[in-house]
Design a protein that fits this description.
By secondary structure, the protein is mainly beta. It has a single domain, classed as Methylamine Dehydrogenase, Chain H (7 Propeller), CATH 2.130.10.10. It is built from three helices and 33 strands. A hairpin with a 1-residue loop joins strand 12 and strand 13. The protein is globular.
Amino acid sequence: MSHRRTALLAAATLACGTPVALSAIAAPPTCGSQLAPPKLSFGDRVVIDPQRPGGEPVAVVAQDGSISVSAHGGTTHLYKDPAALATSAADLTSTYTNQTLNWRSNDNGKTWSYVGLAGGRTGPHTATSTGFSDPDFAMDAGGRIYNTEIDLANVAVFSSGDDGQTYSRGVAEVTSGDRPWLTAGRKDEVYLYVNMPRQIMRSTDGGLTWGLQSHSGDALPVAKFFVHPKQPDTLLGPNGNGAVTISTDQGKTWKAYGGAGLGPTNDKFGALAVDRAGYVYRAAAGGYTSPNDAKAEDGTVTFNSFDPASKKWAKPVTIPTVEGDMLWPWVTAGDDGRVAVAWLQREPKDKANFDIWVAATTSARGTTVRCANGSTRFVPPRWTVANATKGRFHRGAICQAGTGCNASTGDPGDRRIGDFFSVAYDKAGRIFVVGGATAGLGDQQRAISAPIFIAAESGPKLLKKPMRTRPTRPTCGLDPLC
């Protein structure tokens, strides 16, 4: 369009009484706006197993690209209302093996197979392991997948040498305690952290034998820790509310660094993640306190990053959210600065309704950009936020008293979804969540939750390039040395 035609158009528009700001037509984009991640959205939920319970699920992606999910066996995750027991107690008793539950998908989460003994579709997963609760996955550099379980006393560790098809190796009692977490490093190297009493064990032979690394000190982690991706003897874990703790000697000694400046949180397990460049991320999600919490509009989700090299925290940020009550943050990190945070959220308009929300960014530590005028500007992390469940995930109260919830048979004692759910990413970097849903499964209340998988349909990938995969290994069957 010529300058003369532009001028005539502006004059004609003004004559019609509609002002035009010509400068806005050609205005450059706001400096840093190019950092906005693509819009995040999720597909429909997939019910992993319609019979077995799904509380406190964890996930791992094997070196062949398959996804494994594990969940609590369900015995202390019951809703004891008689009507609920009548609809689904038989599902629990008919499938119960006094072991945690495991499933595997080799089609990116579309379909799932239960993993029983020697890869069967029923029964226990391992002949030499026992424990109905507290699963947690880890995978070492050689591809061995480890999991753990407890019977409120013994802490067992079992593992798979064939990408989650079977779990042929199991040690029934590595130690005693409650709420174990696993961390894997070099080939055949795996750490076991137990929360109560606090202790860290280490194995260098694929979980067959174990030695004590440390068992005391205020600087010990409070939950799952991670191996620094570039320094295999350095471990990074959560400590206290918003602190990170570091060990440079394979978990023997630790030093904590506070100052994250996070907001209130309802988080039993210190949500922390480490990206592939070695940076640490923590999140907090607060607002919901108990079934007696009558206010559902005061929640926040806050986030910060930590540089292990400088030992410094960045400036904390508040993730943009809709109004509600938040709890149970979980964090996962992929390539440098690519992070997803998930949390459970109660709706103010319906205080009995809970959904899973996810926020994602590709600039988790913020970015310094050069503007068109030659100046520079620091842009904090840019987030895209979505409701992953797009409908009820849980309806009712959420008991916060742990196993003490089982003293109540009514709504305040509802512990079907356990104490957390988790967020992860697949071989392409696609974000997904796994949780134990109690709603959206039909009209009848169930005594147990159902394990569900929900994957992103659009939004940021947590990997710049898909992970390199290899062919699936031959099945191990019952061979404990496989």
